[in-house]
Amino acid sequence: MIVDIRKWKHVFKLDPDREISDEALDQLCLSGTDAILVGGSSGVTFDNTVDLLSRIRQYEVPCALEISNQEAIVPGFDLFLIPVVLNADDPKWIVGQHHEALKEYGALLNWDEIVAEGYIILNKDATAAQLTSARTDLDAKDVAAYARMADKLFNMSIVYLEYSGTFGDMELVRKTRQVLENARLVYGGGIDSLEKAQQAAEAADTIVVGNIIYSDLEQALQTVNVNFDRNGR
Ligand SMILES: CC(C)=CCC/C(C)=C/CC/C(C)=C/CC/C(C)=C/CC/C(C)=C/CC/C(C)=C/CC/C(C)=C/COP(=O)(O)OP(=O)(O)O
Ligand SMILES: O=P(O)(O)OC[C@@H](O)CO
Ligand SMILES: [Mg+2]
After folding, report:
1. Angle at the Cα of 9 from the Cα atoms of 149 and 21, rounded to 5 degrees
2. How far apart are CA 72 and CA 220, in angstroms?
3. Tens of pLDDT along 45-80?
């Protein structure tokens, strides 16, 4: 399947380390979302990723893997998203893991299926922030510099503002999007209602809905009704 991330406005992120019923998965996959992203920052294994992929594959919705560890690289997804945590204090999460993975898979890859994500993690309490020792105390100028680094210096297709677990600063999201020329501004974190989805949609190009799927499926499904008309990209 040819998948164009530039068309993604709404995405559900499913965590292979968390239980999801067949009925819930059916509703998510048929919801009208633009894609299902499979990923999590801890407890993701080859087995739980294969299991989730095979269940999602019963549906037509595009399905991408956001790789978080080398042991859980599973073939068969439409696309592979590779986080590069620009504000990580530990280079392992900027180039180290990537170097190891490319030693193993580098010669085998179809680069058309691979998309680098310039991650900027802004919630200090998120699992991913702690794992990567991210410097989260950033002002708008710091974030803009990372965003330009991803967009212009490294030519990445995605800048991902990650607030996983909490709803972020939409003014900062809006300002960050304004400095991007080519990359898409993806926002994720704390979207737990249509109202918050709408606020995020007015600031970002793509919104990602994760944790609420597991605590209030009905609210999660409501977020698909978000209106992107006003942000014009
Ligand atoms: C042959 C074949 C199958 C080929 C395909 C393989 C392929 C595409 C290889 C590419 C090679 C490559 C460069 C791989 C990268 C390897 C790798 C392990 C990179 C490190 C990625 C990274 C920086 C991870 C850190 C954690 C992180 C940022 C995860 C992102 C996801 C995330 C933040 C999820 C939210 O997690 P959650 O659990 O929900 O968190 P909360 O508890 O806070 O909610
Ligand atoms: O789980 P939430 O807080 O919705 O965040 C979504 C996503 O950005 C997580 O990587
Ligand atoms: Mg989560």
Report:
1. 115
2. 26
3. 999 999 999 999 999 999 999 999 999 999 999 999
191 lines ligand 2 (CB under 6 A): yes
38, 81 Cβ separation under 8 angstroms = no
Task: Report ipTM for this prediction.
Answer: 0.94
Residues 6 or more apart in contact with residue 153 via CB below 8 angstroms: none
Length of the chain: 233
Q: Match 């992203």 to its residue by tokens.
A: 37
Residues 6+ apart with CB under 8 A from 166: 123, 125, 126, 189, 190
Q: What is the pTM of this model?
A: 0.96
Where does ligand 1 bind, in terms of residues with CB under 6 Å? 15, 39-42, 66-70, 73, 75, 80, 82-83, 85, 93, 97-98, 101-102, 105, 108-109, 114, 119, 126-128, 131-132, 162, 164-165, 210-211
